[in-house]
Specification:
It is built from 20 helices and four strands. The chain is mainly alpha-helical. It has a four-stranded mixed β-sheet with strand order 2-1-4-3, with helices on both faces. Helix 19 links the parallel strand 1 and strand 2. It starts with a helix and ends with a strand.
């Protein structure tokens, strides 16, 4: 086995040395796309809770993310959450993951040019869904680390298939278990990367070999998933953590009729995948159509296995990428599409380029497709960077609002340490410089409005982090104080802040 490890090390070294242009371009794409997040200080929802009360250790374990819970214990030494350092490491890890994917493509031996590898990996890096995911700074570093582990696991499976050394198979399972324990949604991503590896290494003359080669990947997926289910239950029982229905409550399969489910899924697909929006889901639809057209153009008895392999890969990858939509009957949280959807863009790009190369008139088509996809990459990079700038503008608006609240409290002679605070309604910030995404562009003061204490917990956590010490009311107090709201007006009206005994009531909206 030592011989194989040394050989693979030299192969990777050869990739780095001979394909420097790929490495440098992917680094440049990452820097340009996420410069706004790296250099402009801001953070999104849930991070304010992390900074105020520490990591949600038991909550993560209850969600099956025990790896994230324990890893966060290691990464929060010193300052609980160093936002700037976390962002730097997050995007270094995202870049590293793109290099691993480029290596997976390169080592397959397929004659895919550096240009197309950069385009495919660039589309993966720049997808706005990635920022929806990494904007959760409290877990971004750990989740992108899991991306890398997952792709390395795929390499281990390839080594096992090539060398038959069982240790590689064991390492693949261990890497996958850790990745899944950090972020359970990576199961769908595992499927897409598996399909990429199978497609690249498939014998175009044998559909059976394509299916046969999938067996080790399926075993790793099933074994890792089952292990994490058992491990989550065992750890939860040991730590006396109750069962969490947060994820299962989102699912509608089995809760509504098939007709309703189909109608909901079709509506979500039309709204997001057939229309141009900030998340650019329509790009996957374009690539899907292009790949189908290519299959039709190369159709012949000689290419029947190649077409069958391509269609199987396309359909399975597409289903894996839209799994959140299929299970919830809506688009669902956009962050749950990362990295699966960006991986779909990468895979479809490779398939389209590979199929076009089989056409007799490919030299006329390739430049056109190249220009279109390069344009899409640049558009995605611009959108994602704009989202980063928007988040900074949003954060600045929140800081200004904090100062307005502080000034109002001072005018009213309120000593914030002697009162409990109740926030009613929601406070969003709208301007041409703030883009509304899913979580991106949303204020910390407009989440959990229907909770037991409305936005009071998030608001006080954020304000505490910014030096304005406030204590939130409890659910009973919140309910009792609600009787005063009808006579109040939204902030910054003079009647928007009211003192009742040892409580301060703030009405954020009408």
């Amino acid at each position: 086995m030592k011989k194989e490890v040394v050989f693979e090390f030299h192969r990777f070294k050869n990739f780095i040395q001979t394909k420097k242009i790929i490495i440098w371009l992917l680094a440049l794409i990452t820097l340009i796309t996420y410069s706004s997040k790296i250099f402009l200080y801001n953070y999104s929802i849930d991070t304010e809770l992390f900074m105020s009360k520490g990591i949600p250790f038991k909550w993560w374990i209850s969600l099956g993310r025990y790896g994230l819970a324990f890893l966060s214990k290691l990464t929060t030494v010193g300052i609980d959450l160093n936002v700037t350092l976390t962002n730097v490491i997050t995007y270094l890890l995202l870049f590293a993951s793109s290099v691993i994917l480029a290596y997976i493509i390169w080592r397959s031996g397929n004659k895919i040019s550096s240009f197309w590898v950069v385009i495919a990996a660039g589309l993966y890096i720049t997808s706005p869904t990635m920022l929806e995911q990494t904007n959760f700074v409290l877990q971004s570093m750990e989740v992108t680390f899991a991306f890398n582990l997952l792709y390395i696991a795929i390499l281990f499976i390839q080594y096992f298939i090539e060398t038959k050394h069982k240790l590689f198979f064991v390492l693949a399972i261990i890497s996958t278990i850790i990745a899944f324990s950090i972020y359970t949604s990576l199961q769908a991503a595992f499927v897409v990367v598996t399909l990429l590896a199978l497609y690249l290494h498939s014998d175009s003359n044998s559909y059976f070999s394509y299916i046969k080669n999938a067996v080790p990947y399926v075993i790793v997926l099933v074994a890792s998933t089952l292990f994490n289910i058992v491990a989550t239950k065992a750890i939860s029982k040991a730590l006396n953590i109750p069962k969490n229905n947060y994820l299962s409550n989102m699912y509608i399969i089995g809760k509504v009729s098939i007709k309703t489910w189909i109608a909901d899924v079709v509506l979500a697909f039309k709204q997001y995948f057939l229309q141009v929006n900030y998340f650019f889901f329509a790009l996957s639809t374009l690539l899907f159509i292009l790949s189908i057209i290519c299959c039709l153009l190369i159709f012949s008895k000689r290419n029947i296995n190649k077409i069958a392999i391509a269609l199987t890969t396309i359909i399975l990858a597409g289903l894996a990428a839209v799994l959140p939509m299929l299970t919830t009957g809506s688009i669902g949280p956009i962050r749950s599409y990362a990295p699966t959807y960006p991986l779909l863009l990468l895979l479809l790009t490779i398939i389209v380029v590979d199929l076009i190369s089989k056409l007799s008139f490919s030299k006329f088509i390739i430049p056109i497709v190249g220009i279109v996809l390069l344009s899409c990459l640049l558009v995605q990079a611009k959108i994602t960077n704009d989202f980063g700038v928007s988040e900074y503008n949003q954060f600045q608006a929140e800081l200004e609002f904090k100062q307005d609240l502080q000034n109002r409290f001072a005018d009213l002679g309120i000593n914030t340490k002697t009162y409990k605070f109740a926030f009613y309604g929601a406070k969003g910030f709208s301007s041409k410089n703030i883009i509304k995404g899913d979580v991106l562009g949303k204020s910390l003061f407009e989440w959990d409005t229907i909770g037991e204490v409305g936005v009071s917990n998030r608001a006080t956590d954020f304000l505490n982090n910014q030096g304005l010490e406030l204590t939130p009311v409890n659910a009973k107090e919140y309910k009792n104080l609600q009787m005063y709201i009808p006579k109040m007006r939204a902030f910054p009206s003079h009647s928007s802040v009211k003192i009742v005994k040892n409580y301060v009531i703030i009405r954020l909206s009408e």
